[in-house]
Specification:
The structure holds two protein chains of two kinds. By secondary structure, chain A is mostly helical. Helix content of chain A is 74%, strand content 1%. Chain A has a domain of 223 residues. Chain A has a two-stranded antiparallel ribbon. The longest helix of chain A has 32 residues. Chain B has a two-stranded antiparallel ribbon with strand order 1-2. In chain B, helix 5 runs antiparallel to helix 7 and helix 6 packs antiparallel against helix 8. Chain B is mainly alpha-helical. The radius of gyration of chain B is 23 Å and the shape is globular. Classes of the chains: A mainly alpha, B mainly alpha.
Chain lengths: 494, 530
């Protein structure tokens, strides 16, 4: 082998070290799992946390890079680092929340933690892929892990049903996405995003093939982020899957799919931004509408949170709409709003699910709205935390969710989408209405169930971290805004 | 250090918050300790606000905002932690700390469950309200404006009466509906101001109008809903009777006394001086809505069976006077309006306390349940009489000064408007006296009322200060007029410059403008626009 190529490959390997670490530790879990007795399986979570920590360390080493690697098939930029940090944080939080929960479900297995690490690898490649093949493999790695995880409660019919639905719909959406990718390959004769970008930029303004590719890719990604009208799987999967995995799907998988969406829309599809702008705006408004009104009637918290996260997706998509000025130039604030929203959403949405997780105990599933009744008397700490997370989801200050929404509205005003801005603020009202049903249950209604929910140390650590970020980014958001600002990339700017 | 000019406002603002945080760590079983802590911190909050009285400068050449503290907050978006007060917010801050102390004091025996949360939420509410009146930055203002909704939701929803959850969420959603539109208007202000700024101070002090007439129209309506719902002005008032009726006594006092004033404060601070052209253009709508509110509110009061609901509707009528005064756009109208806002806080606050006194004894608020109470409760009857007279505008008491000033200010503009106002005054006297008559006079018809105990010392302690204030403002209101002189003049100069300069018929021979102390006053620039 040519020594120069070899050294190049070795240097490039540095850049996939974060993902490689996760892979190594995931395999280590599968191996060491054999040597653990049935009651020692929770040690697997320690290995998984170590994996996340080492991966985070490796990620720190490649931060501040801005370059391509592996023959332009992956790109290491602040965007990748930011999103990878989000994935790792999310994985760590879910691992902390999982240990006690899986104990109660009597499904404490090594595979669970290994699959979470494997899913994270897939997400990382979604954020750094600069090649259709890499992106597709990343997406499938993530999705396959999630299919298994959502069906992890083997004895629970709802969980099995969730996994089945998720597989079928997921395969369908991946197929559509692959179709879109194949057209892109047909246009450019290359799978590399740089080549495709150039090829599309040279095409005439209204080329039919580009539109078909855009439509197929957009539909595939909208399935993954559960935007209306591609959302039907979400409430069922969220309800049936283990609650930890519901949280994981609603945050990590969604964030990763947004990374894919941003990467594609801001590079290859940037020349047709006028078209995807319409598409994204329509989908966003539909998501806001359906999410808001469907959530009002839910009696299951997990389903309610599923619809609420559909609404949140609507807001994030509106941030994307706000990132293109009327004259077609890029509006940085919109992209910053998307990044900031995704970052803080990770914390408060996982937080809301976390409270449902801690309500689970032997014999009580704890995912009904009535299960929250009188929580303030039974576990005041949990009730106050849930209140903060719900306020943040609704966008009431002083929480991170307020600034997230503020930036979205702001970008819409800057790009003169006044009607969209009005709609966006109007949908806060139904959201407050249904979030406050939960608040009223926790703080006003009396409980018939005298048992106090027990929260393990790991869960307290996760809850503490989430509430700290939700409040910190809501009261003193400066540092968080800067993190989000530094993460974005400008189309054709690098 | 804490009381230096730069920190005094922050001290006032965060004293209740510190109390709330400390109470968070006291076990909930120690209810009495929570009562004490709540009262102590409310009292401390009042105490630290008192130095403002002698440190506030009335000099017309003093800067527009005093005690300004301006710190970096979110530099990336240009939002600052910027607080300061002028004469208007000075009065509102004092009103908040005084009424906050009184309503927390009145809760001592009225609140018998979940004391810990109650006092914590009340203190948080105090911080939120004070923040609204002090903020000089739009983002900060909005944060406080919304933060305050959450504790109020809980005060109504947890400690209210039967339909409390309905009333609480209705209050929340109504107010939020107005606020979110205001949020868009705030962002539009930032985007259209030159240079881009969230600073309320910079926009108010800008020598030339910041916004084009066309934009002003949009912004005016953007802010209008938030404030009109909060006041509440006529078609947006339907949340108020529910919230007032269901809230616990202290909640009603603070709701009527301070929360509603945030709406009128908003008009005075933002809508009128920032969008003067739009204000002049839409003034007739505002006047019409105010007159409807005055008459309609009073008529609805006549029909009420529930004492608390009656007083709630009387607020609609009284606040109608306040908005009427604001949109008269004359110095007398504005001064009277602000004075009347304070009077309303005192009189209506006291009326809610009086209903609370009866409710604690009989657990009902229906007028038909009472009658002849002056026999068992003579001292109560006397105090209630004074409060009634103060509310209906009897000379020597505060209500008279406020209403008279407003009507005088309005009369100068158009006598027909004042005539409608006078009808409102007459109706006000009617429903308040009729209520008094049905509750207090006659024979004791209901045996349950025969042995009602008269006021206890704690009830005196909450009511007497309000009575003293009512007499003081009725007999010697000139300190308030002096405080309001400069801020009102600044507003009128912007929105109604013709008031100070005679009409330009004899422009060349016109005498020099009177009352203009500020050389940079934009009088001439504004006259052309008009």
């Amino acid at each position: 082998m040519d020594p120069q190529v070899l050294s190049q490959t070795l240097t490039d390997s540095m850049f996939v070290l974060p993902a490689a670490m996760l892979g190594l530790f995931g395999l280590a879990i599968l191996l060491t799992d054999f040597f653990l007795a049935r009651n020692q399986k929770s040690w697997n979570s320690v290995t998984a946390m170590l994996g996340v920590a080492f991966s985070g360390g490796a990620l720190y080493e490649v931060a501040h890079q801005n370059r391509f690697a592996f023959n332009n098939s992956i790109v290491i930029d602040p965007f990748f680092v930011f999103f990878s940090a989000l994935f790792l944080t999310s994985t760590a939080l879910v691992i902390l929340l999982s240990v006690r929960y899986m104990e109660i479900e009597r499904e404490q297995h090594g595979e669970y933690y290994a699959l979470m690490l494997f899913a994270t690898i897939g997400m990382m490649f979604l954020a750094c892929g600069n090649d259709l093949i890499v992106l597709f493999i990343g997406l499938e790695t993530m999705a396959l892990a999630f299919y298994v995880l959502s069906g992890f409660l083997r004895r629970d019919r709802r969980s099995n049903e969730a996994a089945m639905k998720y597989v079928l719909i997921g395969a369908f959406s991946s197929g559509i996405l692959a179709y879109g990718f194949s057209i892109l390959y047909g246009i450019a004769g290359s799978t590399n995003l740089n080549d495709i970008t150039e090829a599309i930029a040279k095409k005439p303004a209204n080329d039919l093939m580009v539109f078909i590719a855009l439509g197929a890719v957009a539909a595939g990604v909208f399935f993954k982020i559960a935007a209306v009208p591609f959302h039907q799987w979400a409430p069922d999967v969220y309800e049936g899957a283990p609650t930890t995995i519901s949280a994981y799907v609603s945050v990590a998988s969604k964030t990763a799919s947004f990374a894919l969406l941003l990467r594609l829309f801001l590079t290859v599809f940037w020349p047709v931004r006028a078209e995807w702008l319409m598409l994204v705006a329509t989908v966003a408004v539909l998501s806001l509408t359906l999410g808001a009104f469907a959530a009002i009637t839910q009696t299951n918290i997990k389903r309610l949170l599923a619809y609420s996260s559909i609404t949140q997706v609507g807001y994030i998509l509106l941030g994307l709409v706000g990132s293109v000025n009327k004259d077609g130039s890029v509006n940085r604030l919109g992209l910053e709003a998307v990044a900031f929203y995704l970052m803080v959403y990770l914390f408060f949405n996982t937080g809301a699910f976390a409270i449902v997780i801690v309500l689970r105990r032997k014999g009580v599933i704890g995912d009904d709205v009535d299960d929250l009744n009188g929580l303030i008397h039974r576990n005041p700490g949990a009730a106050i935390l849930m209140l903060i997370f719900l306020l943040s989801l609704a966008g009431i200050p002083p929480t991170a969710g307020f600034f997230a929404k503020l930036f979205v509205f702001w970008s819409l005003i800057q790009t003169q989408h006044y009607v969209l801005a009005l709609l966006a603020v109007a949908y806060i009202l139904p959201a407050v209405y249904y979030y406050f049903r939960l608040v009223a249950a926790m703080f006003v209604r009396e409980s018939v169930d005298p048992v106090r929910p027990v929260i393990s140390l790991g869960q307290w650590v996760a809850l503490g971290a989430m509430v700290a970020v939700t409040l910190a980014a809501g009261i003193l958001p400066e540092w968080w805004v800067r993190v989000a600002t530094n993460s974005i990339f400008i189309p054709f700017g690098r | 250090m804490l009381f230096s000019d730069n920190h005094i406002l922050s001290t006032i603002l965060f004293t209740p918050l510190v109390g709330a945080i400390i109470m968070l760590f006291i076990p909930r079983e120690r209810a009495d300790l929570h009562r004490w802590m709540g009262n102590i911190f409310a009292f401390l909050g009042l105490l630290v606000s008192l130095p403002l009285i002698w440190r506030f400068s009335l000099d017309a050449n003093a800067p527009r905002f005093q005690f300004v503290q301006d710190l970096s907050w979110i530099p990336s978006i240009g939002a600052r932690y910027s607080i300061g007060i002028d004469g208007l917010s000075f009065l509102m801050v004092l009103l908040t700390t005084v009424l906050g102390m009184i309503s927390i004091g009145s809760s001592w025996s009225a609140i018998k469950k979940r004391e810990k949360e109650y006092y914590i939420l009340f203190l948080l509410l105090q911080t939120g309200m004070l923040g609204v009146f002090m903020s000089l930055d739009f983002v900060l203002f909005y944060v406080f404006w919304e933060v305050m909704l959450v504790p109020m939701y809980f005060l109504i929803g947890v400690w209210g009466s039967e339909r409390r959850l309905y009333a609480a969420i209705k209050f929340f959603l109504y107010t939020l509906a107005g606020s979110v539109i205001m949020l868009l208007a705030i962002l539009a202000i930032y985007y259209n101001s030159n240079p881009h700024t969230f600073s309320i101070k910079a926009i108010l002090e800008s020598p030339t109008p910041m916004f084009s007439v066309q934009l002003q129209k949009w912004l005016f309506w953007g802010f209008f809903f938030a404030f009109a719902i909060k006041v509440p002005m006529f078609p947006f008032h339907t949340w108020l009777p529910d919230a007032h009726t269901e809230a616990p006594t202290a909640g009603s006092v603070i709701l009527a006394g301070v929360l509603l004033k945030m709406g009128t404060y908003g008009f005075l601070r933002f809508s009128v001086p920032m969008f003067p052209d739009a204000t002049n253009r839409y003034r007739w709508i505002m006047i019409a809505l105010s007159i409807v509110a005055i008459i309609y509110g009073a008529l609805v009061c006549m029909m009420q069976k529930d004492m608390k609901k009656l007083i709630a509707y009387s607020s609609v009528s009284h606040l109608g006077f306040c908005t009427l005064g604001i949109f008269a756009l004359t110095p007398l109208g504005l001064t009277g309006s602000i004075l009347q806002q304070i009077n309303h806080g005192i009189s209506t606050g006291a009326l809610f306390l009086i209903v609370g006194v009866l409710y604690e004894r009989r657990h009902t608020r229906l007028i038909s349940e009472f009658g002849g109470l002056s026999t068992p409760m003579p001292n109560f009857a006397a105090i209630y009489m004074i409060v009634t007279l103060s509310s209906l505008g009897m000379p020597l008491l505060n209500g008279f000064v406020g209403e008279f000033t407003i009507l005088k200010g309005v009369f100068d503009v158009r006598w027909q408007w004042a005539a409608w106002g006078v009808i409102g005054v007459v109706l006000g006297a009617a429903y308040l006296l009729w209520l008094y008559q049905r509750v207090m006079f006659g024979n004791v018809t209901n045996p349950a009322n025969e042995n009602l105990p008269d006021l206890n010392w704690r009830e005196y302690a909450t009511l007497v200060p309000l009575i003293v204030l009512a007499f003081w403002l009725g007999i010697y209101p000139s300190p308030i007029f002096r405080v309001l002189d400069t801020p009102v003049q600044r507003i009128v100069q912007v929105v109604n410059p013709g008031y100070y300069t005679p009409p330009p018929v004899s422009a060349a021979a016109a005498p020099p403008p009177m009352h203009i102390d500020d050389a940079a006053a934009p009088t001439d620039a504004r006259a052309e626009v008009k």
